[in-house]
From TrEMBL, chain A:
Gene Ontology MF terms: transmembrane transporter activity
Chief place of localization: membrane
Superkingdom in the source lineage: Bacteria
Protein name in the entry: Xylose transport system permease protein XylH
Automatic annotation (TrEMBL), chain B:
Alphabetized InterPro entries for the sequence: AAA+_ATPase (IPR003593), ABC_carbohydrate_import_ATPase (IPR050107), ABC_transporter-like_ATP-bd (IPR003439), P-loop_NTPase (IPR027417)
Gene3D superfamilies per record: P-loop containing nucleotide triphosphate hydrolases
Protein name stated in the entry: D-xylose transport system ATP-binding protein
PROSITE patterns linked: ABC_TRANSPORTER_2
Pfam family, one: ABC_tran
Organism: Nonomuraea dietziae
GO molecular function, one term: ATP binding
Source species, domain of life: Bacteria
Domain ABC transporter: 5-241
Length: 408, 254
């Protein structure tokens, strides 16, 4: 093994563009596509819809888009956890609807303070997830079946909680509605967040790199870090600029971004997150390594239920009401599709919560673009279905080439 | 002094298969015990009993003279038992560092210390002269032999008292096999006890102090590696000849 600080097989070497291309080719061959397909897909989708209708990339449309992705996106974050185990949660949509109903009853019918009502609604989501997790991890019922039963049961629970009216309106100037209607109008908010994100990324990269250099293990070149930081800065400040053209930084988007970054940290930088990947990769290896597999499984379903509840609360907030339709029809499927489109594998062990963000951007962009064109729902579903299929095909192929590149 | 590990009358069955019957085995510190036997003799099953992966139905496990309960892999790890499984038990989706430290990750304030783990992984792999393109690639993209060396390195990260090696050289080339055998001798030199499973009699005779034979799930003799011929061991494994030879060498070794 060479003594050079930069192992060409590990990180991008100093050769600049050729280095990147070589690295890129190696990764694609090995099936490590990462977020690349979805980012390319998103750019294509945006260019197509912009060429069809110049309103598409308008500040107002993009700003609305950034809030529209939040409710289902939050559910999708929980789904990512479940998919990482190689399992599925078919009840997430029903849980979100049920918890939105609980929130509305507590807050409106019973006059409970919104903060407490939200807390209790999320706790209900956690308990429903706990029930799924228990039957899955302790009794051994396949997650598919447990959550299918949960889907039916919690849908009934939602109808029961809502009562005969079937709809409970939330005060449109209330706290809950404010979750999705609050904007930080001062330009400093969006730019500040962008600056914070970019500076944080740069600081973490530089500190990590210095530690790696000091420890004598491969590290990235400064040029590489600068390149990554510049890309992030362009995206972050570009988004901030556009949001400021309309009403500023939406609170809902801020919360969603914090959730995505926070959960990604938990998954990649903590022992708990590492255990989730291990269970998703090889359950027997995880067990033999001393990991408490039932605990990991149950906790993941609790997380999924909790995020489903949070997503349901944001969905109710967006339309200022909880109804029988909240969390129903295609919400669950969109949340799963978003995770998969964003690059989280259905086979377990590979993925990030960023895929909830990227996947929802794709799905919502298609929905928004089609709506601008006045295209009917039917076409929209078909296009989204095709995108989902493409994502799963990419996942399957990359998995196959990883296998091929794997064992000798 | 009592041996570090002593198994007493261990039995285990899987449904209709009686995989182990009244098996006894002792390992001392600084001793290499080879466990040999035909396919299906119950060697891996016995390893899993010791490692806490598949606890026995009957029998006692004595650790340093006291009875120990090994019901889970964590119990075994806590005692100081490290295991390389025949099926390796690696997570294909994790990189080499992630696999080496799985279940024992280094953290600072709750956050994984990737730099420290990567540094120690590289150092360890280097001292074992293990060649892997990068410690940051998923183990799925390693060759069979490389995977095996990762599994072996994994068992050495803590400071185990007993190392269980279930066919550690099965997928290895000539050079790497020699390295693993060197490693086994180094472990013995450092006072670790080693249980080595192998079908290669030459390797077994080269490094083992004692050779325990399992046949159809039962003990079939424990032989002194220095004084027993390969033929005697093979006949104990296959049961081809009368067991006089094995009885004789057992007497000699005691
Ligand atoms: N999980 C299991 N379920 C049922 N039977 C099992 C299981 N594990 C092992 N057995 C049976 O127990 C017996 C012993 O198997 P074991 O794996 O211990 O053999 P071994 O000595 O390691 O053989 P090899 O040299 O092929 O690795 C075999 O008959 C096998 O079929
Ligand atoms: Mg075996």
């Amino acid at each position: 093994m060479s003594e050079s600080p930069v192992d060409p097989r590990l990180v991008v070497s100093e050769q600049g563009l050729t280095g990147y291309l070589g690295e890129f080719r190696r990764k694609v061959k090995g099936g490590e596509l990462g977020p690349l397909p979805v980012v390319i897909g998103l750019i294509v989708i945006w260019l197509v819809f912009q060429s069809l209708n110049s309103q598409f990339l308008s500040a107002q449309n993009l700003s609305n888009l950034s809030v529209d992705i939040v409710p289902t996106g939050l559910i999708s974050v929980g789904i990512v956890f479940v998919l990482l185990l190689g399992e599925i949660d078919l009840a997430a949509g029903a849980v979100s609807g049920a918890c939105a109903a609980v929130l509305a009853v507590l807050n409106v019918n019973m006059g409970m303070s919104p903060g407490l009502a939200i807390l209790l609604a999320v706790a209900v989501g956690a308990v429903l997830g706990l029930i799924h997790g228990f039957f899955f991890a302790k009794i051994g019922v396949p997650s598919f079946v447990v959550t299918l039963a949960g889907f039916l049961a919690w849908t009934g629970f939602q109808l029961w909680v809502l009562g005969p009216n079937g709809t409970i309106n939330l005060p449109s100037d209330g706290f809950v509605a404010g979750l999705t209607s609050t904007y930080f109008i001062y330009v400093i908010a969006a730019y500040g967040l962008a600056a914070l994100g970019v500076a944080g990324f740069l600081a973490v990269s530089l500190i990590g790199n210095n530690r790696r250099r000091a420890a004598g293990i491969p590290y990235r070149t400064t040029g590489d870090i600068v390149f990554r930081t510049v890309v992030l800065a362009v995206v972050a400040f570009g988004a901030a600029y556009i949001l400021n053209l309309y009403q500023g930084l939406p609170l809902a988007l801020l919360i969603f971004l914090v959730v995505v970054v926070g959960t990604d940290f938990v998954l990649r930088r903590t022992r708990y997150g590492r255990s989730i990947f291990a269970v998703g990769g090889n359950i027997e290896a995880a067990r033999r390594a001393g990991i408490n597999v039932p605990f990991i499984r149950i906790s993941v379903f609790v997380i999924s239920g909790s995020f489903a509840a949070v997503g349901g609360i944001f969905a109710a907030s967006r339309i200022s009401s909880a109804s029988q339709a909240t969390g129903q029809s295609n919400v669950l499927l969109m949340a799963i599709a978003a995770a998969v489109i964003g690059g989280t594998s259905l086979f377990g062990g590979r993925g990030t919560t960023y895929s909830a963000l990227l996947g929802m951007l794709v799905i919502q962009s298609i929905a928004s673009g089609m709506a601008l064109q006045g295209v009917s729902n039917s076409i929209q579903f078909m296009v989204t279905g095709a995108v989902l299929l493409a994502a799963v095909v990419i996942d399957s192929i990359s998995r196959r080439s990883q296998k091929a590149a794997g064992r000798a | 002094m009592a041996p570090v590990l002593a198994l007493e009358r261990i039995s285990k069955r899987f449904g209709a298969v009686q995989a182990l019957t009244d098996v006894e085995l002792e390992v001392d510190a600084g001793e290499v015990v080879a466990l040999v036997g035909d396919n299906g003799a119950g060697k891996s099953t016995l390893i899993k009993v010791i490692a806490g992966v598949g606890p026995p139905d009957e029998g006692r496990i004595m650790w340093e003279g006291r009875q120990a309960t090994i019901a889970t892999p964590s119990d075994a790890q806590a005692l100081g038992i490290a295991t390389v499984y025949q099926d390796l038990a690696l997570c294909d989706n994790l990189d080499v560092v992630g696999n080496l430290y799985l279940g024992n990750e280094m953290t600072t304030m709750g956050v994984l210390d990737e730099v420290a783990m990567e540094k120690r992984s590289r150092d360890l792999l280097e001292t074992l002269s293990i060649k892997i393109p990068s410690v940051r690639i998923p183990v799925a993209s390693l060759s069979g032999g490389q995977r095996q060396t990762v599994a072996i390195s994994r068992s050495l990260l803590g400071d185990p008292k007993i190392v269980l090696l279930d066919e550690p050289t099965a997928a290895l080339g000539v050079e790497q096999t020699a390295q693993v055998l060197d490693l086994v001798e180094r472990l013995r030199g450092q006072g670790h006890g080693v249980i080595l499973i192998s079908h290669n009699m030459v390797d077994v005779k080269a490094v083992a102090d004692r050779i325990a034979v399992l046949r159809l799930g039962r003990n079939n003799g424990v032989f002194d590696a220095k004084t027993t011929t390969q033929e005697e061991i093979i006949s104990a494994i296959t049961g081809a000849t009368d067991n006089a030879a094995s009885r004789r060498s057992r007497r000699l070794s005691e």
